[in-house]
């Protein structure tokens, strides 16, 4: 775990000292869209992702739902993120970097800008023509994938429809703050106060979502939208990872019937299922976050991380 400073890798854990033990997420730096100099073209773009990361997972799901596998290639990082950050070293679920030939993800950031300063995160949308990062903010990459490739062969489907945007944005805002990022704010807190400040609102949001989903199939409108996708990538990891590793343990998702139903509905979706590898994700969190779990031991349970009777075995690997 570390970051680049003027193009030089520095091994460092998140600084929580200056913020009273609170984990404060840094803004992503590459924020271009596919317009102007970047045009949507088959074969031009590459995604750097990984099975562990909930932010990268959003992007893998959108790529799959829009049927973009043949138009946008992908590389997948190793589960273990050590002192040199994410790597493409051989391991389960790794898809090597066919574009930049990087062994370490920081080399991809340097290939785009040899003087980059900042965190080295997945997901990344990379332009093979201009040889640079277009965007490294998942909430924006999923919107790009949702519509930019529609005229060059993407599958139909709009997961951010105009008429539902206000409602989607409102749900996203609460879910991002208290849940998607809330699990990290709970788990990476280094004071009791900072932890409790995160974990209580997190469960208030889960309670609220459970109620909101009564009599509804999806969060917004009567259809699958990006709001469901953004919620899902946290829910699917919750009982196996966040409940134990990040101490989000007032309740499990299995204790919420409506949230469990939504989680399973997406997890078993034929296009979404191949984007999930919970064993890999568990190994990442428990082995890489040595300040949270110094022994690196990966717990064996829960036996059924997606609720009674639901198994994810038999899922096919992600097409490269
Ligand atoms: N805001 C970013 C966050 C991405 C992010 O934090 N990814 C994590 C993996 S789950 C990462 O690569 N962390 C490495 C680091 O912070 O050094 C997004 O949504 O794309």
Outline of this structure?
The protein has 320 residues and is of the alpha+beta class. It contains nine helices and seven strands. The strands form two sheets. A four-stranded mixed beta sheet has the order 4-3-6-7, sandwiched between helices.
Between the first and last Cα atoms, what is the distance in angstroms?
26 Å
- Text of the CATH class of the largest domain: Alpha Beta
Mean pLDDT across all residues, rounded?
A: 94
Strand content: 5-15%
How many helices? Answer: 9
Order of adjacent strands in the largest pleated sheet: 4-3-6-7
* Total number of strands: 7
**What ions, cofactors and ligands are bound?**
glutathione
Specify Rg, calculated over alpha carbons: 19 Å
What overall form do the CA principal axes indicate? globular
Percent of residues in helices: 25-40%
- How many domains make up the coordinates? 2
* Secondary-structure element order, N to C: EEEHEHEEEHHHHHHH
User: What's the architecture of the largest domain in CATH terms?
Assistant: 3-Layer(aba) Sandwich
Oligomer: single chain
